[in-house]
TrEMBL record, chain A:
Its cofactor is [4Fe-4S] cluster. This is Ion-translocating oxidoreductase complex subunit C. The gene is rsxC. Binds 2 [4Fe-4S] clusters per subunit. GO terms for cellular component: plasma membrane. Its EC number is 7.-.-.-. The keyword RNA-binding does not apply. Belongs to the 4Fe4S bacterial-type ferredoxin family. RnfC subfamily. The complex is composed of six subunits: RnfA, RnfB, RnfC, RnfD, RnfE and RnfG.
UniProtKB/TrEMBL annotation, chain B:
The keyword Transmembrane applies. Its EC number is 7.-.-.-. The lineage of its organism: Bacteria, Pseudomonadati, Pseudomonadota, Alphaproteobacteria, Rhodospirillales. The chain crosses the membrane at residues 21-40, 46-66, 96-114, 126-145, 212-230, 237-254, 266-287, 294-313. It is an enzyme of class 7 (translocase). Keywords: Cell inner membrane, Cell membrane, Electron transport, Flavoprotein, FMN, Membrane, Phosphoprotein, Translocase, Transmembrane, Transmembrane helix, Transport. It is a multi-pass membrane protein. The gene is rnfD. This is Ion-translocating oxidoreductase complex subunit D. Its main location: membrane. Part of a membrane-bound complex that couples electron transfer with translocation of ions across the membrane. Belongs to the NqrB/RnfD family. Its cofactor is FMN.
From TrEMBL, chain C:
It comes from Magnetospirillum aberrantis SpK. Binds 3 [4Fe-4S] clusters. This is RnfABCDGE type electron transport complex subunit B. Residues 29-88 form the 4Fe-4S domain. [4Fe-4S] cluster 2 binds at residues 110, 113, 116, 150.
């Protein structure tokens, strides 16, 4: 297949060897599971269980809390201990509403929805509902509810389902292992998703540094004429939805549009496997594959982890830490988020847990920019990081927005190459957050103002009505008085009339 | 916020740093420099050492005065590079005070007044060279013919001391550079084609047996250093190719039109500071545009101005002036030649969808 | 000579006349900027800025160089908007520290007197006579008028908490770098 060039990008040290040959190992059940109500983009899920209630494996714990939301299920049987605030896997260290489940070790299954024997003879809407009810979200880390992305076929003409197996982040090998060990499941899931979307064709994009995954997937796909496996160049960030689409189709997704507008929907390989489980076996999303790696981890591994397991349980299973890590990262080292500690749960979007040593992070105090222009050359979004960072440094967020800071995807390439170690992406993350917050503020103020105006109108009207009523009453009284006087006068007249 | 989460990603970094870049540039300059030091003997060695040392000293002094940490910035070799390039743009037998005054122009005036490393608008070494050239035209144009170390007639160590710390080269030793000779002859009414016969041939120009500034000689070694920088991805091809290409095309074109008035393209490329300028001076990160397209425009500008100054102006060599003039345009070039953002048109509007106008 | 003086006089008189007519015709009673500034303020007349109401603050901003940072309910965003319109630099450090607030009613202390509801300009408090009142946090903009009028001190002002949805990275503090 002919591939198309993608602008910019970098070739970081991949460091995947530590886990690329580590087969996926199921993690033993931990003593407690912490299931946040918000493990996805959109509204938080709403709990349907109470503290003290016994639940079975696969039972619904919380249903979707809105049109963009996803339900959560019990990864094993046990008792709901509480629904309470627990530290979130997030750099802020803030807490969020979380269902705490104490497993009883019996792994007793709840009654699951019936398997769909022939999905290709089933209406897409039924399959889509199954995906939605199974709590499946984008397992590549974006955690957007998958069912919504699968409904794009009803609004737009989709001709390609692009399965993202690029896995361009260093260290991470979970998608690689899933493709190597469960290729048939992934391909089946992808074909079901293509059926839901009405897409005639499935293309699997895998970075060329994963030959075993390419071979396994090609083998699993060869009996299906419409599934093609394509090795893509090793170039970070190839796993970005828009860039992968460009590499495979040559089409550039316009700003503020979706790849679906070009007829392409991108899903992660792990998501495809989850769809396979949901449709063929009625099994909701209960676990995911997580790469545990980094120089501070004793025995790096790929683990199949029940959702809600504490990161500390994963690390302990991997032999613990050999030294205090400089950073604990949720995800890959390029785009992953730093974690404040190990006592946070694995959620649907956790593709990796990295405990990185100071040597691996290679953090140095930032020096002055020497305008080398490398950040401009490698920016996959065609932005000028050096200029944006200078604006942001001087608090000119408007100017930064004008030169495109909101188009930045925070891929981290510019910070990675900067010889002066300037935290460019940190500047952009700050600016994006601050601009969004200011927008939110402005909207809130507009709504407040509308409320105040409505209030004032009402008060004025009430006042006017009161005045009118008072005037009317006064007029009435005056009229009555006049009438009374008139009548008395008349009577007086009468009386006066001899 | 804990020390674990005080910074957003990425949590890995390319194995590069500012000192590493600067040291690579110095390494690329080393072969040509060593050869030139050999060619021009002890006075050139003294000049080189004085130039680098005074720039380093000036840098340390400025940092100290500004209350900035001295050690980290001094370690990154950027001041050494300025001093090195300054030495290469001086006549090799110039007296000691020329590089010292140059260092004062280069470091405090051209660099630290603007805010230090990364903030300067103009290339410090070229500011120094131009300031010296207009202030001390005699010392700055007194070139000598190469007299390699240990060859007969080359000044010994002590003799060299008296040259560097005395009056410098004297008129009797002087020899004109090729560009200077052609210009002088042209002003006397002698056509270029005629005067070209009396300057070193192209081979000599390329390998360095000719009078001139230290960096003007040994074109081949400079070129090799430049290619080394290209291979190591310290610089990209855009500026050097644009500078040399423009000079060659303009030179060839006008030489064909009027051989008596204009020197040929190859002569432009191999003489003067073309190679040094194209690979080491115009490519200075701080003072050149950041985008590739901007760098092409910048390079063409430098080539064009160099050719124009060499052909029409009073000075035989125009590289330094051309670089400084284009430096002043860098901010504008940067603004005008931004790369196109992903999914957007050049004007910043979202790309139209197919079938959408 | 006479021609020069004459023509100049004619030009002067004509232009002067035009200006005079324009001044009469295009006369604006109210300062437009004052009106514009008033539009930028919340309009809750809470008086936390130290002026009687939003109109008076807008007047002070337009004519008396009042600081742009006085509006508490408007917060940082309003201060920035005002500063931008007036072309001044706002010292936002105070707003950074304080952050937006909203009112909370202590249900044990509320006697259901309705006074706060009467004060609230954004209809953010609901309740009826002799029944505990409550604040709709989303509608409250922190003007603190209810806080001041509550006879039982049942109302206190709380900081709007930072959530996972509203948190964002701080500006990196790397002053050593100049770029």
């Amino acid at each position: 297949m002919k591939l198309f060039p993608v602008r910019g990008g970098i070739h970081p040290e991949y460091r995947k060897d530590a886990t690329s040959e580590a087969a996926i190992t199921p993690l033993p059940l931990p003593t407690a599971l912490y299931l946040p109500l918000q493990q996805h983009i959109g509204a938080p899920a709403e709990p349907v269980v109470e503290a003290g209630q016994r639940v079975l494996k696969g039972q619904l714990l919380a249903h979707a809390g809105g049109s963009v939301s996803a339900p959560t299920h019990a990864p094993t049987s046990g008792v709901v201990e509480a629904i309470t605030e627990v530290a979130a896997p997030h750099p802020s260290g803030l807490t969020q509403k979380t269902i705490v489940l104490l497993p009883d070790g019996r792994e007793e299954w709840a009654e699951l929805p019936a398997p769909i024997a022939d999905p290709f003879a089933t209406a897409p809407e039924i399959l889509r509902r199954r995906v939605a009810e199974s709590g499946i979200v984008g397992l590549g880390g974006a955690t957007f509810p998958s069912a919504i992305k699968l409904s794009l076929g009803t609004q737009k003409k989709i001709d390609t389902l692009l399965l993202n197996g690029a896995e361009c982040e260093p260290y991470l090998t979970c998608d690689d292992r899933v493709m190597r060990e469960h290729a048939a499941e992934v391909v089946d899931g992808a074909r079901i998703m293509a059926h839901i979307l009405g897409a005639p064709k499935v293309v699997v994009g895998i970075e060329a540094n994963k030959p075993a995954a390419i071979a396994a997937m090609t083998d699993a796909a060869k009996q299906f004429g419409n599934v093609e496996v394509v090795p893509v160049p090793v170039q970070y960030p190839m796993g970005s939805e828009r860039h992968l689409t460009q590499a495979i189709t040559g089409l550039e997704t316009p700003a503020r549009k979706l790849t679906a507008d070009l007829g392409v929907v991108v899903h992660n390989v792990g998501t495809a496997r989850a769809v396979h489980h949901a449709v063929r076996f009625g099994r909701p999303l209960l676990s995911r594959v997580v790469t545990v790696s980094g120089g501070a981890v004793a025995k790096p591994a790929n683990l199949e982890v029940p959702l809600g397991t504490l990161v500390s349980d994963l690390v302990a299973f991997c032999g613990g830490l050999t030294q205090p890590p400089r950073r604990i990262v949720n995800g890959g080292p390029m785009m992953g988020q730093p974690l404040p500690g190990l006592e946070v749960p694995v959620v649907k979007g956790t593709c990796g847990i990295l405990a990185l040593t100071a040597g691996e992070c290679d953090e140095q105090p930032p020096g002055p920019c020497i305008r080398c222009g490398t950040c401009v050359t490698i920016c996959p979004c065609g932005l000028v990081p050096v200029e944006m960072a200078a604006y942001i440094r001087h608090d000119k967020l408007d100017a930064a927005a004008k030169v495109g800071v909101m188009d930045c995807v925070s891929c981290g390439s510019c910070s990675y190459v900067c010889p002066s170690h300037i935290p460019l992406v940190h500047y952009f993350n700050y600016a994006k957050g601050a601009i969004t917050a200011a927008d939110r503020d402005r909207r809130k103020q507009d709504s407040t103002k509308a409320l105040i105006e409505a209030h004032n109108d009402r008060v004025e009207k009430a006042l006017a009505a009161k005045k009118a009523a008072a005037a009317a009453a006064a007029a009435k009284r005056a009229a009555e008085a006049a009438a009374a006087q008139a009548s008395s006068e008349t009577s007086a007249d009468k009386q006066g009339n001899p | 916020m804990s020390a674990l989460t005080d910074k957003s990603g990425p949590f890995t970094h390319a194995p590069n740093s500012v000192p590493r870049i600067m040291n690579t540039v110095l390494l690329a300059l080393a072969p040509a420099t060593l050869f030139e030091l050999y060619l021009f003997g002890w006075p050139a060695v003294f000049l080189f050492v004085i130039s680098v040392a005074s720039c380093k000293l000036a840098e340390a002094g400025c940092l100290w005065l500004a209350g900035k940490p001295v050690a980290p910035t001094l370690r990154d070799s950027s001041a050494a590079l300025t001093g090195w390039l300054l030495a290469m743009s001086l006549p090799p037998w110039a007296p000691w005070w020329v590089p010292v005054v140059g260092a004062v122009f280069a470091i405090p005036l051209a660099k630290h007044v603007f805010g230090g490393l990364g903030q300067n608008v103009f290339n410090p070494a070229m500011v120094a060279r131009v300031a010296l050239l207009v202030s001390f035209p005699v010392q700055m144009t007194l070139f000598v013919a190469p007299q390699p170390l240990f060859s007969a007639g080359a000044p010994g160590f002590l003799e060299a001391l008296s040259i560097t710390f005395g009056a410098g080269a004297v008129d009797s030793m002087s020899a004109a550079s090729a560009l200077g000779y052609v210009k002088t002859e042209l002003s006397r009414g002698i056509p270029v084609a005629e005067s070209l016969r009396h300057v070193p041939d192209l081979m000599d120009l390329a390998f360095g047996s000719k009078p001139g500034s230290m960096g003007e000689t040994s074109v081949v070694l400079i070129l090799l250093g430049g290619l080394f920088l290209l291979v190591r991805r310290i610089i990209s091809w855009h500026i050097p190719v644009a500078v040399i290409g423009t000079l060659f095309v303009l030179g060839t074109l006008f030489n064909t039109l009027d051989p008596a008035r204009y020197t040929p393209g190859m002569f432009h490329v191999l003489s003067g500071a073309t190679m040094l300028g194209a690979f080491f001076i115009a490519t200075d990160y701080v003072t050149s545009p950041v985008s590739k397209k901007g760098q092409l425009v910048f390079g063409v500008g430098v080539g064009l101005l160099t050719w124009a100054i060499r052909s029409y102006a009073g000075y035989p060599e125009g590289m330094a002036f051309a670089v400084l003039l284009m430096n002043s345009l860098t901010p504008i070039i940067d603004q005008q030649f931004r790369p196109r953002a992903f999914g957007r048109t050049r004007k910043g509007e979202p790309l139209p969808l197919k079938g959408e106008k | 000579m006479l021609l020069d003086v004459g023509s100049l006089t004619v030009i002067g008189v004509t232009l002067g006349g035009l200006l005079g007519v324009a001044a009469k015709l295009l006369h604006v009673e109210e300062d437009p900027i004052e009106h514009e500034l008033l539009g930028m303020l919340p309009g809750s007349q809470c008086g936390q800025c130290g002026y009687v109401g939003c109109g008076q603050y807008a007047h002070a901003l337009a004519h008396e160089h009042a600081p742009v940072t006085l509006c508490a309910p408007g917060g940082k965003t309003t201060a920035e908007t005002l500063a931008k319109r007036l072309g001044v630099k706002a010292d936002l450090s105070e707003h950074e520290d304080k952050g937006p607030e909203y009112a909370v009613i202590d249900e044990d202390l509320c006697i259901g007197c309705l006074r706060c509801i009467g004060e609230c300009t954004s209809d953010a408090i609901v309740g009826s006579v002799k029944h505990v009142h409550t604040v709709i946090a989303d509608q409250c903009h922190g003007c603190a008028k209810c806080f001041k009028i509550c006879p039982t001190e049942a109302i206190h002002m709380c900081k709007v908490p930072v959530t996972l949805g509203t948190w964002h990275w701080d500006k990196p503090h790397t002053d050593a770098a100049t770029h």
